[in-house]
TrEMBL record:
Name of protein: XRE family transcriptional regulator
Lineage: Bacteria, Bacillati, Bacillota, Bacilli, Bacillales
Species the sequence originates in: Bacillus thuringiensis HD-771
InterPro entries per UniProt: HTH-type_regulator_Rgg (IPR053163), PlcR_TPR (IPR041315), TPR-like_helical_dom_sf (IPR011990)
Length: 258
């Protein structure tokens, strides 16, 4: 999408006898709407895990230069990092892009904004995917501390995501009891927020960690797995339904038959 230059707009407004500010306001509004629409499409790609499409959109928008406001530039860099990581598996480039995105707004490392926390969380996910769990745990700890300092967080689901990812990394580093502590906080938060977002995953993760305790409580494990399966079925998450059945319920059936 090409927008007329400010000089051209100014000349046009003079010819038409219109206050140039009115024309600028009009095009700015159109541009704003365009950027917001693109953001919506980008978020949707992310939700649907359509990373190749995300990559194409981000590349196109970088060339078009419509994302000029600081926050918009940051949004684009952040999602470019996700696309680069998912499509090319290039953690080095992805982390560099995230650092550049953070630099645009970061003023105080002890008081991060909601967006900055979310960007840092993306960083922690990259490290975890790269099996650098300790780095991921450190970053997520900072994210949680900073999120708790926010007076009026707009999106409390970010905290839920931090807790979930932290519990996941703790489980991967054999800190099962610590992981369960965070999972319980996450379950409580999801229920308080009246959301099913990550609730099934949290119940499954709790069961997964409880399975690794020296003293196992079979009933507790089964309850969490059943809750996870129920939520996955309710929300029609086919991949997760298959996973929980294969990794837990089918094993239980085999055990009872042996």
């Amino acid at each position: 999408m090409i927008y007329p230059s400010s000089i051209l707009l100014y000349q046009l407004s003079e010819r038409l006898g219109i206050d140039p500010n009115n024309i600028f306001a009009l095009t700015q509004n159109k541009k704003f709407k365009y950027v917001e629409n693109v953001k919506y499409v980008i978020k949707d790609c992310l939700k649907q895990k359509q990373y190749k499409e995300l990559y194409e959109i981000v590349k196109k928008e970088k060339d078009e230069k419509n994302f000029q406001a600081k926050e918009d530039k940051q949004f684009l860099l952040w999602h470019e990092a996700i696309a680069v990581f998912e499509v090319n598996r290039s953690i080095k480039t992805a982390l560099k892009l995230l650092n550049n995105a953070l630099k645009l707004t970061l003023t105080n490392v002890d008081f991060l904004s909601e967006r900055e926390i979310d960007i840092m969380q993306t960083m922690s996910i990259f490290y975890a995917e790269n099996k650098e769990y300790d780095k991921s745990i450190t970053i997520l700890g900072r994210c949680l501390t900073n999120f708790n300092k926010l007076d009026f967080p707009r999106d409390k689901a970010i905290k839920l995501k931090i807790i979930f990812n932290l519990a996941k990394c703790l489980g991967m580093t054999y800190q099962y009891e610590e992981a369960v502590k965070y999972i319980d906080k996450g379950i409580k938060l999801a229920i308080n927020l009246n959301t099913l977002y990550l609730l099934g995953e949290l119940y499954y993760l709790k069961g997964w960690n409880l399975l690794r305790f020296k003293q196992q409580n079979e009933e507790d494990i089964a309850n969490n797995m059943k809750k996870a399966l129920f939520i996955f079925e309710l929300t029609e998450k086919e991949t997760l339904i298959k996973m929980v059945k294969e990794k837990y319920f089918e094993n239980q059936t085999e055990k009872s038959h042996s």
